[in-house]
Design a protein that fits this description.
Blueprint: E1 4-7, H1 13-22, E2 27-30, H2 38-42, E3 46-47, H3 51-56, E4 60-63, H4 68-75, H5 81-84, E5 90-93, H6 99-111, E6 115-118, E7 121-122, H7 125-129, E8 133-137, H8 141-154, E9 155-160, H9 167-195, H10 200-208, H11 215-226, H12 235-251, H13 257-271, H14 283-289
Parallel strand pairs: 1-2, 1-4, 2-3, 4-5, 5-6, 8-9
Antiparallel strand pairs: 7-8
Helix pairs in contact: 9-10, 9-11, 9-12, 9-13, 9-14, 10-11, 12-13
Length: 298
């Protein structure tokens, strides 16, 4: 059984580690905030004092971190992940980062005889806790096969996108752009309905149970209608992802006109101080543009 290290116990980490422990993997965890470690220690995990120590104790070291800068900081340096990886060990990066960040880190790992794989996930914390994540992978094919049991323990499906370490990150960013776009579209439809005297619940309820009957439309229509924006996936992280995909689009000369719309929605919400709300709260800006109060039920 592979020994697994896990660095970064944010909103997703506790559920993911719990599933690894349930599957029988020995897991050592590191988190900057020690308070998040205690529940996992009670379930059988052990604690490392540094990212390097977690890597030294692992065949597979997973990072689940908020952004590129944090990933690079935790990976590099004297106490970083790369310093602790043995030859042939695997760094499984499950963060949503720029493809070029993954490519750079893959090269530094290869130079040391280790492997870096991109494995970003689709799913919210409740999906992590119930093994319902979808995982995209890219990097060395043999290394991906080696970690497949680890990925299977945390997910309901795994999709591979080839040897380019950055490919899975492009897929993840594309998916996040599509989610943000569906939030914007539903917000506009709900606002249109309300302005014309039709219950938004009736409109979105009908559409998301018929021609748009899919999990994303159903989940986010519920958040929009109830205005249940705390806690969740932070709006600031959604804004970061829109900026990352814009960089990919510019570099590859790929026009993405609707990206500008959702990117500006995130920017407006950030300017209003809503960075810590769920990213679906960009729907509030559609209401404001139409002269409706933010709170539907005040």
């Amino acid at each position: 059984m592979l020994k697994v290290g896990f660095v970064g116990l944010g909103a997703m980490g506790e559920g993911m580690v719990s599933k690894l422990l349930t599957a029988g993997f020995p897991v050592v965890v590191y988190n900057r905030s020690a308070g998040k470690v205690a529940p996992l220690l009670a379930k059988g995990a052990t604690q490392a004092g540094t990212p390097r120590a977690a890597a030294e104790a692992s065949d597979v070291l997973i990072t689940m971190l908020s952004n590129d800068a944090v990933l690079e900081r935790v990976t590099g340096g004297e106490d970083g992940v790369l310093a602790g990886l043995a030859s042939g060990a695997i760094h499984l990066s499950m963060s949503t980062v720029a493809p070029d960040t993954s490519r750079k880190l893959a090269a530094s790992h290869t130079a040391q005889g280790a492997h870096y794989l991109a494995a970003p996930v689709f799913g919210r914390p409740e999906m992590a806790a119930t093994k319902k994540l979808w995982i995209c992978t890219s990097g060395d094919v043999a290394a991906i096969e080696r970690v497949r049991p680890v990925l299977e323990a945390m997910s309901q499906g795994i999709f591979s996108f080839g040897e380019d370490a950055g490919a899975a990150n492009i897929v993840k960013l594309s998916g996040n752009f599509m989610i943000a776009s569906c939030v914007e579209v539903m917000a506009e439809v709900a606002t249109l309905a309300e302005k014309n005297g039709i219950a938004p619940e009736a409109v979105l309820g009908m559409l998301t149970s018929t021609i748009f009957a899919c999990p994303m439309y159903q989940r986010y229509s519920s958040l929009i209608l109830t205005q249940d924006y705390e806690p969740g996936f932070k709006l600031s992280l959604g804004f970061k992802d829109m900026n990352l995909i814009q960089s990919v689009a510019l570099k590859s000369e790929t026009p993405m006109p609707f990206l500008s719309v959702v990117q500006q929605r995130f920017l407006a919400a950030m300017a209003e101080g809503r960075a810590d709300q769920d990213w679906s709260s960009i729907a509030l800006n559609s209401r404001a543009d139409a002269g409706l109060p933010y709170a539907r039920f005040a």
